[in-house]
Amino acid sequence: MSVERATTPTHDHARQIRPRLPSARALTIALVLAVLMGLVVQQVALVYNAGEIESSVPPVPAVMCLLVLAGINPVLRRLRAGWELSRGELLTVYAVLVLSVAMSGRFFTRNLLAFITVPRYYDTLDEIDEFLPELWVPQDQTAVTGFYESTRDGFVPWDVWLQPLGTWTAFLLVTLGGIFCLLELFRRRWAEQEHLRFPLLYLPLELSVGSTEARQAFLGNKLMWIGFAIGFWYSLPVVVSPIWPNFPDWKVTYRPFEALTGVPWNELRRIYMRPLPHLIGFGYLMSTDNLFTIWASYLLQMLMWVVFV
Question: Rounded to whole angstroms, how far apart are CA atoms 183 and 180?
Answer without folding.
Answer: 5
